[in-house]
Amino acid sequence: MSASTWTLRRLHAVDDAQIQGLADVLIDGASVSFMHPLSRERAVAFWRHVAEGVASGARALMVAEDAHGVCGTVQLVLDQPENQPHRADLSKMLVHRRARRQGIGAALMQAAEATARDCGKTLLVLDTASDDAERLYERQGWVRVGAIPGYALLPHGGLCQTTVYYRNLDG
Question: How many whole angstroms separate alpha carbon 76 and alpha carbon 169?
């Protein structure tokens, strides 16, 4: 599948159909930040909360869509403490299994960085527990800070580490 078979855009409002599609991606995407099994109700509630942040300007939400609907997403948490107006957190970078290895992850990362710049952000940070995601972030020029052992629980239980990255957008 080539880039011409999917599109990428920033959502400034999130409708019910998009929330359902985002829930599908979250459920498919190893339930990032959630324990197994992740119910559709919890996934939808999560995305409704995100939609509130998008509507208020506290978050930026980018989605990739293919012929089947939403197939990827990434967020920027723009609302930061008073002493960190230059920073945003990159969050929930997810690509549905049906759409992986097509460049969507890299395109979402580039869109997030461009959006951050447009919003006046010069520093992005993220954390991940995924080896595949680490490879993507490093290919995109993110700098690995280090790993924190025992940071979170895996979806089926058991502790895992998280790896912290940053990207300076000034340079």
Answer: 14
